[in-house]
Amino acid sequence: MHGPCGELDPHCPCMRQGNCTKHFPKKFNDRTTFDSDGFPIYKRRNTSTQVKKNGANLDNRYVVPYNRDLLVKYDAHINVELCNYSRSVKYLFKYVHKGSDRATATIESTKTGAENDEIKKYLDCRYISAIEACWRIFKFDIHYRKPAVERLPFHLEGQNTIIFEEEKRAESVISRPDIKKIKFTEWFKANKRYDDARELTYSDFPTHWVWNAKDKTWNRRQSGKAVGRIYFAHPASGERFYMRILLNFVKGSTSFESIRTINGDKYKNYRDACYALGLLDDDKEWNDCLVEAALWAIENELRHLFVTILIHCQVSDSRKNNCEILSKDIISLQRKRFQLKNLQLTEKQVEAYTLFEIETILLKMGKSLKDIDGMPLLDSVLLRDVRNRMLNEELDYDKEELKILHDKSFALLNDCQKSACDAIITSVENEQGRLFFINGHGGTGKTFL
């Protein structure tokens, strides 16, 4: 049971600005549904059953979501949810790969005359919880991948990466016979030797071929599955970026020149080859870059990438087809900022706040939306309306619940109340702007009306 909090205990640790940060108490529901963001709204029946906690009576609205079978089996509070939205999956990957937990430890001396060195007495430590410690003691799997992912390096001609020990001399490193044998160059050789290998692009090659790290050769795949993932290239990296685009489309390349050979015509650089293949018409390259990055990057990273493209690349139509990709988390950001779980924004307000986030990133780089041709400017009126907390609270209602309440209340109106209600609604719907004054003795139903 969560809490008690809210009016039952305003000093509960979960309270902030008069509201529960965990959004308790929840609303009663007859069945489990999903909201617009894909998060579950659990069934909470109004059974009138209550339990006492810290002197307060709590009902189903305060029950923390749980999985009954796992709770009973392990005697611990456990809940399982399905990640059915890409943003949830991205969050999980970001959380798993964020690194170990950290803790700041303080060393204090009981001696009054001891030297107080604030730098030395604070230690940045790695924190291992009891759960993680047990997991590692029992040698359970830390992670696994399915299917296997084959990382595929690539490089411009004569610019392959060489890794060697620090004490090695440059001459001995260069003289190694296999110094130039890497996955990328051996892909060229496999295409020369085998006809069926030429039917695959570089990214699809691991689906039918396996890399032998010991012999540094590609062998035919006998079993198992794997997918290829070409190393990322930044849009500002020039020819390397255009080569990566071509490697996703060109098949059977046997040399660096053949990659930029399109329909028998050899182009002097990879950028021209991309244009000849129809990959860079207008801003297609930048839009494809954002669409590809949207498969794995979170929205804040996508906005930083978008700003990088605006500043360092030639973009003809900067606002085309990008707003939806860059604004997927805007509503959730504002809900957290204003502590309003059901906050709704119009399409124009979402666009305005997306531009505000982009402008914030641009200012850090010494630029502004005013410096980018074709980019819309910030609408200060929309932003001011969104930041108006009183207005947001008035809009933060469950319309379906209010409709049910309205229908029940409307049926209870007496003749005089109904006459006044009809007159007021008629004035609002026809925009007559009439002024009404409701007068009556106490208890006659003015507040109810």
TrEMBL record:
Q: What class of enzyme is it?
A: isomerase
What span is annotated as the signal peptide, if there is one? none
Q: Which reaction does it catalyse?
A: ATP + H2O = ADP + phosphate + H(+)
Keywords on this record?
ATP-binding, DNA damage, DNA recombination, DNA repair, Helicase, Hydrolase, Nucleotide-binding
Q: Which GO terms describe its biological process?
A: DNA recombination; DNA repair; telomere maintenance
Q: Which GO terms describe its molecular function?
A: 5'-3' DNA helicase activity; ATP binding; ATP hydrolysis activity
Which Enzyme Commission numbers does its entry carry?
5.6.2.3
Cofactor names from the entry are:
Mg(2+)
Gene3D superfamilies, alphabetized: P-loop containing nucleotide triphosphate hydrolases
> Does the keyword field hold Nucleotide-binding?
yes
Hydrolase keyword on record: yes
Q: Which residues form a coiled coil?
A: none
What does the similarity note say? Answer: Belongs to the helicase family.
What's the protein called, per UniProt?
ATP-dependent DNA helicase
Q: Which organism is it from?
A: Nicotiana tabacum (Common tobacco)
Question: Which gene is transcribed and translated to give this protein?
Answer: LOC107799874
